[in-house]
Amino acid sequence: MALYKPVVVQTCPRLGERITQDTVYWEGYKAPIQIKEFGAVNKIDFSPVPPRNYAVTASSRIHIYGRYSHEPIKTFSRFKDAAYCGTYRDDGNLLVAGSDEGIIRLFDISGKAPLRQFDGHTKPVHVAGFLSDKYRIFSGGDDYSSKLWDIPSGTEIVSYREHTDYVRCGCASKVNADVFVTGSYDHTVKLFDARTKSSIITIEHGQPVESVLLFPSGGLLVSAGGRYVKVWDVLKGGQLLVSLKNHHKTVTCLCLNSSGQRLLSGSLDRHVKIYSTTSYKVVHSFSYAAPILSLALSPEDETIVVGMTNGVLNIKHRKPEEGKEKSQKKRQPAYRTYMRGKTYMPKQEDFSVSKPVRRALRKYDKLLKSFDSSKALDAVLEPSIRLHTPEVTVAVMQELHRRGTLRSALAGRDEKQINLLLTFVARRVIEPRFTSILVTVADMITDIYQPVLGQSAIVDRQFLRLQEAIGKEIDYQGELLEVLGMMDTLFASFAEKKVTCLEENRSNSPTEIIETDE
Amino acid sequence: MVAPAALRVVRCGGGTIHGARAVFSADSKYLLCASGDFVKMYSVATEETLRLMGGHADLVTGIQLNPHNHMQLYSSSLDGNIKLWDFMDGIPIKTFSVGSKLLALYALASSEDSVFVVIPKSGERDTFQLVSVKLTKTAGQDVEAKELSVVLDGVGASPKHIAFGREGQYVASVKEANLQVYFFKQKQLNRFSVNTTKTKNRNSQFTCIACHPTEDCIATGHADGKIRLWRNFYHKKEYTFSTLHWHHDIVMDLAYSVEGTSLLSGGVESVLVLWHNESDCRKDFLPRLGSPIEYISMSSDGSLCCTLHKDNRITIINSNLRFSKSIQGLIKSIDVKTGLVVDPRTKALVLNGEPGHLQFYSLQSDQQLFSLDIVQRQYIHQAGLKQADLVKVAFSARGEWLATVEEREEAADPELQLKLWFYDEETQSFKLNTRVNTPHEDHITDMCFRDMGELEDDSPILVTAGRDCVFKVWVMVEDTDPEAQQSVSWSCDFVGSYHNYQATNCCFSEDGSLLAVSFEEIVTVWDSVTWELKCTFCHPPGKIRSICFGRLTCSKYLIGATDHGFLCCWNLLTCALEWSAHLNVLVLQPDPLSEHIAAVSWLSKESSLFVFKPNEPRPVYIQRNLCKEKILLAAFVPRDEPEMTGSEKYLWLRSSQLFFLTDTQELLTLSTRSLEERLTPSSKQLAIEESLPVTPFSLLLGKHRHQQSQEDTDLGKLVVHNKHEQDSPAVKELLHTPAHVLPSASFLCPIFINSLLISKENKSTEEVADEVEMESEKTNDDSDEERDVTEMEQEDANPMDLLGEMTCKLSKSQERELRKLRKMDYSWISAF
Asked: DSSP string of B778-805?
């Protein structure tokens, strides 16, 4: 004798990206916090020491935010014009920033007024940073020069005039205290050694360089400019390792995660892409509301902060690990209760009688088992099922259709229930996986309730909504077909060999056409 | 040299077991039922087939226990004979030939020496009468029984249409809308009809009848699902009836419990309903029995009941309406859409089983191995519902993967699902791996896996051809998803089409390098690596019906059959037609283990078989007039070990056996062996004491035996059979020699076992000598003898067995002599 077989609920695999470990990791952030700044956020820098405060440079201010505070805990506003590139020193005590007036300012985190002012650039300074010996500052300005400054004396050590366009980005090596890199709009990235008079390596990026990044090992250099992110091997004298073209607008910022396994790039196309540094494949991507200018990741990837052109600062905190202790505490009395007598070892002469396993059936299955079609449909139209798992509702409708009792289950309902049904159908009928059965349901409802049409305003409105939804979908499918036709002509103009590829495309694209007479 | 026996068409796969009501033996330990031309005896406890009683030449239509001797069984058949069997030993005692077709059989305790049968009325078509047959007690095996007396005229042909009332006082019969009751003593015939009550409803016709065992009450089942209980039917006018209604469709059978307190009914819904006290309000159900109930029968002690189902199944049910056991034969579905497929792992035949299930049917044991639920949906037993059904099945070469296609016919578009199942070694069953909704936009016409060579460890490839003018290639892809439970899944890799023709067949070459897909009239050949179209073949007129590649030495040939009666063979190297023959081929089936290809043709109402090798147009073997029915499907099943046939002619049958399925759902095969060789008698030993109810005599006998054994032990002897002890010096020596001087046990063992064997000659003399010997001993001897016989019969007997070795060397004539001897041996029992 066969047992009752529950209704099979068709689950659809989630389309698009596959769930990988990276997806799980990078999706593990809470809902973002948005803070409006005064202008475009051009630099975000995390303090290397705890508490992980971060400096946000926007307009003519640098705000310091605490880890979880949504208000700046400190503000440096001694700039006459826009400030650029507020960067922490390795010990987190000092902060350097360039400015539009060409002056580089050095701040103490605890103070307000700048400790030093470095005068020398004639044009705005967009890049400034500390070398890893903590006592020197490098800078690059729109006057095509990059300079090195001594902090104790506040004087210029050396000035390099090798770039032929604005210097807009730079980075200091963490391994060697004398080495730093600058990128310029003249399409080159230059590697300087403070001990020599000229650059040691010049790398041709091909586009105006927006951001450069040195790997912690110092061996690899990443440059971003135009739509490209390029990785270079410095130790081989600047050989191109890989060129990534995953954005469709200019890449503006680069960032490594704490482990150095993932590279993040932000772009004006409003996306942040995450690459694996072993395979250089995109493993995940975030999308944002506005073009991205700056991006920073806190140590241990606790927080992702993204600054955008519209001055919005987007902060995402990682979700805390699930508290395991709490659940265990809850279980303890239950464990004792259920384990009563379980530790008894059966003796040889004992005869063990096992309890028959009871199968738990869902409510709609119980009703279907006893052939209560109408009640089963009611059960799956309850809000919890209808809203969260529409596939269950549709599966039960399909089962009723298969049993030939769908019409009688739909019939004999009052205004409220028809309203409910029609709302559901109008909302879901355009989903391809539900279309076939919901079109049947819609047909039946119109058939059954045609005589009473016009008696209830609510129901009439729902019918109109259904008509509208289907009309829209038909238009949409028409457009899709047009696009497909255009693509077909494009593919047809390709070589003969591509014919098979075209056919594959056809099989994958959604070409169902809903045939309705509503 | 003995001339090779001619090839014969043999029916296999068991007969329908729902030909007549099943009967429980008196002690409810055995279940007897009619199965085609045979009567089968099953053990209730273990479900195994204990006896197969053959002798009737046509379908068995009724079986009844002899009411005066519960060890005997009457059976009636369409061949006009009533046979009396001793079912414990499986031997026929007597055959009564009546002379006309027997459609049903009833035996009553009250009628001394006669049974009742339903026979067609001579001279009139479709009119039947119930007659009582006097069974004479003359000696001899074959007895003429011509003393017929008509009891009732114009009865129904089905055994369900007649029932005998309380202690055989009356007989009730239904036909269409009429109920007639005949009282034996009063010789009075009362007629009732339901037409008077419901004239408009045609469906209130009678379908079955049952009589209350102790009261004067008749229960009738009707086509509209109602059950009527008739009382006071002594009066022609003042009769009464009450109605019970639960079934929504025809009531197929009714049965009263032994005491008559409850009534069982069953029908198309496949629900067994138990009505308590004949009231409408108190009833119990046993739902989801799998398929429509055909017959219900109760055991005489009321502890068990069994239902016979349309799909060749017997369900045994406890008295408290709990499902207990089921015995499953080959399910014969109306339409075998999947074709005959052989499971490479179990060598079982795979075809449509229960609706939505795939049955794995073992040909060797004539048993269903298991049934795999493919559709996984609740089956609703209701007429007119369009249910999802299985249409295509394919196994990968080693049986690791199973692909199934199910479809549900709908007005707009068919609901199609392609499922791929992986064989799980741990659970020893198939597990669903991938489900593809709507793999094609129209019906799938064919499906095949790429056969991998033994050495190649390539991932399998599946090809499906559809009526939507494309064929699709499905490949296995590794899943990178860490949360998914399985590491592989299937996805579409390539879609090919040819000039918008419907794809009808697909087939891979033996090495898997080429794929042939037929598009209506054209065969296209594709490279299976790059999926490039290599060449096309066409032989107009006529669409391609089936295609296959040659194997082994003939792998350069491609064979195609068209529906305009041509069989074509193309050479793949020259891309030219090698030969063609004018033959209306219905089935084209290559043998997986040899070059041979079997083609079954249908010409002027008879099927013929042609076996050929692709490299020559002359067939190797022709068998005209294979059978009268149309053969729809065929399959080569590899043999476990190659059969040794002397003749060159039957060389093609060496490695595989050919099976056919006809349009009447008859499973046929070709065999060179004669019928006697095929029927190996069962070696099961039945202890008769077990089936004897405890009588004062048996108690006495038991006590006597007990005492005897007590005496034996008192004397210090071993409880070994007297007879054995006397005539075996080996045993004596073994027992009397001190243990420390004995040789090793392995040396003694064969001597000891040989000494226990009973030679035939002295047994028969002994049997004659002491007839008063206890019954138990007799059965021991019988079974011993039987065991000997089976050992002789079995070809694959243990080589260590001396006896088996000897018989293997026997010539055919000697064997025939032996068989004759065996037949003669049984004669003393019939005389008894």
From this structure: HHHHHHHHHHHHHHHH-TT--TT-HHHH
Question: Residue B150 and residue B100: Cα distance in Å, rounded?
Answer: 14
Q: Which of B291, B378, B440 to mutate to test the interface with A (most CBs of A within 10 A)?
A: B378
Which residues in B have their CB inside 8 Å of a CB on A?
Answer: 286, 288-290, 315, 323, 326, 373, 376-378, 380, 382, 384-388, 408, 412-413, 437, 472, 479-483, 492, 494-497, 531
DSSP string, A135-159: SEEEEEETTS-EEEEETTTTEEEEE
CB A134 within 8 A of CB A89: yes
* Chain B contact for A179 (CB, 8 A cutoff): no
Report whether B162 contacts B106 (CB < 8 A).
yes
B318 vs A contacts (CB less than 8 Å)? none
Distance CA B357, CA B348 (A): 15
Give chain A's end-to-end CA distance (angstroms, integer). Answer: 46
Q: List chain B residues with CB under 8 Å of A504.
A: 494-495
Provide, rounded to the nearest whole percent, the portion of chain B with pLDDT above 90. Answer: 9
Q: How far is B294 from chain A (nearest CA, A)?
A: 16
* CA distance to A68, A315, B195, B395, per residue, from A305 (Å): 12, 5, 88, 55
Beta bridge partners of A197: none
Report yes or no: B663 and B673 within 8 Å, Cβ to Cβ.
Answer: no
Work out the angle at residue A355's Cα, subtended by the Cα atoms of residues A353 and A359, and round it to the nearest 5 degrees.
155
Strand, helix or coil for residue B611: strand
pLDDT in tens, B130-175: 888 888 777 777 888 778 888 888 888 888 899 998 888 899 999 8
Looking at per-residue pLDDT, the higher value among B786 and B517 belongs to B517
Residue B829 pLDDT > 60: no
Q: Which of A1, A20, A504 is the closest to B495 by Cβ?
A: A504
pLDDT, averaged in runs of 10, over chain A (518 residues): 79 66 85 89 90 88 86 87 91 90 90 88 92 91 91 90 92 90 93 90 92 89 92 90 91 90 92 91 90 90 91 89 56 67 78 79 90 91 89 91 89 90 90 87 91 88 92 94 93 64 42 40
B506: its two tokens: 């697909």
Q: Is the peptide bond before A51 cis (omega within 30 degrees of 0)?
A: yes
| CA neighbor of B433 nearest in space, from B425, B422, B424, B423 | B422
* Neighbour count for residue B555 (Cβ, 10 Å): 17
CA distance B526 to B507: 10
Return d(Cα A62, Cα A66) in angstroms, integer.
Answer: 13
Q: Mind telling me how many Å the CA of A357 is from chain B's nearest CA?
A: 16
The answer to whether A254 contacts chain B (CB < 8 Å) is no
- How does pLDDT run across B179-199, given as a tens digit for each residue? 889 988 888 888 888 764 555
Cα distance between residue B52 and residue B367, in whole Å: 14
What residues are paired with A318 via a beta bridge?
A29
**Does residue A97 contact residue A118 with C-beta atoms inside 8 Å?**
no
- Intra-chain end-to-end CA distance of chain B, in Å: 42
Strand, helix or coil for residue B137: coil
pLDDT in tens, B731-775: 777 777 777 777 788 888 888 888 777 766 544 444 444 444 444
**SS3 state at B723:** helix
Instruction: Tell me what ipTM this predicted complex has.
Output: 0.71
pLDDT of amino acid A181: 93
Q: Is the pLDDT of residue B719 over 50?
A: no
Helix H or strand E segment including A458: helix A457-492
* Helix H or strand E encompassing A470: helix A457-492
